[in-house]
Specification:
mainly alpha; Ferritin; 5 helices
Amino acid sequence: MFDTRNDLPANVRTQVIELLNARLADAIDLGTQTKHAHWNVKGPNFIALHELFDQVAEHLEDHIDTIAERVTALGGTARGTLAAVARATTLRPYPEDISDGTAHVDALSAALAAFGAKVRAGIDEATRLADADSADLFTGISRETDKDLWFLEAHLHAKR
């Protein structure tokens, strides 16, 4: 860990850095899954889904940057290389053989929901560690993740 004048105790910073890096790996993985869906979606709702997936990817890019910058602000190293993400992600692999819009919405919704649950657990863990700033960071990500999930799932409900 790098020296910093941040007044959080070093043991707290170490634990929060580990938590943030875990969610960073998931966010990067989810971002690539979202772009995969964006590039490969087909069907009658192509343009709407293509643009929606891109919007979700943009939100994830912002989250990735926010998480990584918090890691470094706490004196850690943001683990964002492809190899580090591949080792650390907790998300299920995205199906690579789908093209139907509804199938992508379903797969992406499942991945986004899993990420959202892990981010909410991060709120609780950061709170337990008395790092209000990281808990707030996770709260903002959770709020936007839930909104993106709502937008995606609206496409599934139309089919029911």
